[in-house]
């Protein structure tokens, strides 16, 4: 970190914080920091305020773990959605990809990650307990496993299928209309709609 000594302390501090963001290396962090330094006071303040307000006003839905400003979230509280059909996704961003299809009328459960033994992520690090509890209570007719068709997404889907199999619930997996190895949040609407439509029992 010797290079940081070239920067004034506030600059070095911002660069260090920016480097904690996914996909941001030292070079990008320096570029963003200098961009913020050159920005108007208003723009810099708006960025700081947006970060602060995100943490202050958003929380996780107590039912499905979706990021929300109201609890339960708008999906879990909706009287027009099928509360007995639960689509399991890795991240809240996946919900947007599924909602864009306009073809899904159920609710969600967000795991906030996938099983990844290499990165030390085991079942206890996933937020799966709420889902198991809903299924155990008999509140769910079908669980759609919509984790990405990556190695880790498949391992997560297999683990969930095994865990939930002891309960009387239909378990399905989205079709591989989603390109193998890709992230479902980048699937286009047609692909995503087909993946949901072509789901199969597991
Ligand atoms: Zn919810």
CATH architecture of the largest domain: 3-Layer(aba) Sandwich
Sheet with most strands: 5 strands, mixed
Question: Low-confidence spans: pLDDT under 50, at least 5 residues?
Answer: none
**What's the overall geometry?**
elongated
Order of helices and strands: HHHEEEHEHEHEHE
Strand proportion, as a percent range, falls in 5-15%
Count of discrete domains: 2
Number of strands: 7
Question: How many separate helices?
Answer: 7
* Cα gyration radius (Å): 20 Å
Give the distinct bound molecules. zinc ion
Helical proportion, percent range: 25-40%
Question: Can you tell me the CATH class of the largest domain?
Answer: Alpha Beta
As laid out across the biggest beta sheet, the strand order is: 4-3-5-6-7
Give the distance, in angstroms, between the N- and C-terminal Cα atoms: 49 Å
CATH fold assignment of the largest domain = Dna Topoisomerase Vi A Subunit, Chain: A, domain 2
Structural class: alpha/beta
Mean pLDDT: 90
List the defining traits of the structure above.
alpha/beta; Helicase, Ruva Protein, domain 3; Dna Topoisomerase Vi A Subunit, Chain: A, domain 2; 7 helices; 7 strands; 39% helix; binds zinc ion
Walk me through the structure.
The structure is a single chain. The protein is α/β, with parallel strands linked by helices and 202 residues long. The model has no long low-confidence stretch (mean pLDDT 90). The termini are far apart. The chain has helices at 9-18, 26-38, 41-57, 92-99, 129-136, 151-164, 189-197; strands at residues 59-60, 67-68, 82-89, 106-110, 142-145, 170-173, 200-201. Helices cover 39% and strands 13% of the residues. The strands form 2 sheets. It has a 5-stranded mixed beta sheet. A hairpin with a 6-residue loop joins strand 1 (59-60) and strand 2. The site of zinc ion has 8 residues, from loops.
């Amino acid at each position: 970190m010797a290079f940081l000594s070239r920067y004034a302390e506030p600059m070095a501090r911002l660069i260090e914080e920016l480097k904690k963001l996914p996909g941001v290396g030292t070079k990008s962090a320096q570029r963003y920091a200098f961009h913020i330094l050159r920005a108007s006071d208003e723009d810099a303040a708006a960025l700081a305020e947006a970060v602060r307000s995100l943490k202050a006003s958003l929380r996780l839905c107590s039912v499905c773990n979706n990021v929300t400003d109201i609890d339960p979230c708008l999906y879990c509280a909706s009287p027009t959605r099928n509360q007995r059909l639960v689509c399991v996704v890795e991240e809240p961003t996946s919900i947007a990809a599924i909602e864009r299809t306009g073809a899904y009328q159920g609710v969600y459960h967000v795991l906030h990650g996938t099983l990844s033994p290499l990165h030390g992520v085991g079942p206890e690090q996933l937020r799966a307990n709420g889902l198991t509890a809903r299924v155990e209570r008999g509140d769910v007719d079908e669980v759609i496993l919509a984790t990405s068709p990556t190695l880790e997404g498949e391992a997560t889907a297999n683990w969930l299928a095994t865990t939930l199999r002891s309960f009387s619930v239909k378990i399905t997996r989205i079709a591989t209309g989603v390109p193998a190895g890709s992230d479902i949040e980048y699937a286009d609407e047609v692909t995503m709609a087909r993946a949901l439509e072509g789901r199969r029992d597991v």
